[in-house]
Design a protein that fits this description.
Chains A, B: InterPro entries: Homeodomain-like_sf (IPR009057), HTH-type_TetR-like_transc_reg (IPR050109), HTH_TetR (IPR001647), Tet_transcr_reg_TetR-rel_C_sf (IPR036271), TetR_C_31 (IPR041583). Two copies of one chain form a homodimer. With 192 residues, chain A is mostly helical. In chain A, 73% of the residues lie in helices and 0% in strands. The structure holds a DNA duplex (30 and 30 nucleotides).
DNA sequence: ATATGATGCGTACATCTGTACATAGCGCGA
DNA sequence: TCGCGCTATGTACAGATGTACGCATCATAT
């Protein structure tokens, strides 16, 4: 781990940039990348630093602990996902368009990279044990439910929310994921 | 970590039992306990050994690697859960009883200890990264779907399976879990 | 230009991890 | 009863991890 002593360059020459506002943000993004790729279990200070191309010491400088990094990362992920949810449903003008928006959202989840899906599941399991992360999850769920309540009554919104959750999760782990048509069938059947 | 050198008892006196058939089984059970309590991330050889009250060396003797322990543990969990599913649905004589069985299963999941639920989510996230565990998950899902297909057509079974998944997961992470009545409402609405 | 205080970083360290392996001890056949 | 061989265990070890901290370095004011 020790640098080769024959390296002629002084330490600072190798890493020129010092003043780097927004580095904290990049670190959080890097953390999300690492979580998606290696899981929470494989997320370490060193790995995040490597991905973000910053020195290890920068981690402890910007975050009090690894747990803080995880909490910030998951908060960002949840907020970003909720925003997509909000916007997609907010643009719907009637119930039919809302159904269409839901189908689009679910299909997008499944067809897109596994990135967001994996992050969500990782967040779930982390939330099961960490109260701070549980609050993040609950805020996220409350927000998506509220978005649905713009077009459906409270009970329907809650049940539909759960159905979406199940369709996405179940389908993602299956050998043959559901097609958008199958998603549409399930959602419309439920809302009929 | 080293034992106090002034312990007068020889090593063998402290741990009398040597011949212990079925120890492997107990270790797998202990592993499930540890996974449920500390998560896969907190599951180590030493922790399992501590819970099962066996020496560390016993772990590497009975299992080639930690991954093997996890695989066996999750396999056992999935099989046990699937058996419950099978039995509960198998005893139903008509579709109405099958619906009742489903509601009972879901409610049981929510009202019982978090034990099984946490294990399931841990299995999901582990399966996302480990091919061997993914096979376990898929076998489990296939089996529960087949049980549903005894009473519903294939499409309905698949969608219902996903709905159940969503209801359980969503509800478990929520601040106010759904009541059995709410579960019944959602399931019957879907099957109407 | 230069002193100076805040900012950022390299490195060390104690701890914990999975795993290997030399033996110790017991069951079992003679 | 007595050995022998397989089962089981204590221990060692290399590697990785989170975190602390002293010091280098830069922005800024003079």
């Amino acid at each position: 781990m020790k640098p080769p002593p024959d390296d002629p360059r002084p330490a600072t020459a190798r890493r020129p940039r010092r003043h780097d506002p927004g580095r904290r943000d990049r670190l959080i993004d890097a953390a999300l990348t690492v979580i998606a790729e290696r899981g929470v279990a494989g997320t370490t200070h060193r790995e995040i630093a490597r991905v973000a191309d910053v020195p290890l010491g920068s981690m402890t400088y910007h975050f009090a602990s690894l747990e803080e990094v995880l909490a910030e990362a998951f908060t960002r992920h949840a907020e970003s996902a909720a925003r997509v949810f909000d916007e997609c449903l907010g643009s719907a003008r009637d119930r039919t368009e809302a159904v269409e928006a839901v189908i689009t959202l679910v299909s997008g989840y499944l067809l897109g990279s596994q990135y967001d899906l994996v992050l969500s599941v990782e967040l779930y399991v982390a939330a099961a044990r960490n109260p701070a992360l549980r609050a993040v999850t609950q805020a996220w769920m409350a927000r998506s439910r509220r978005a649905l309540e713009r077009h459906f009554d409270a009970t329907t919104a809650r049940e539909l929310d759960a159905l979406i959750e199940g369709l996405v999760l179940h389908s993602a782990l299956s050998t043959d994921p559901m097609t958008p048509e199958q998603i549409r069938h399930a959602v419309e059947r439920f809302l009929r």
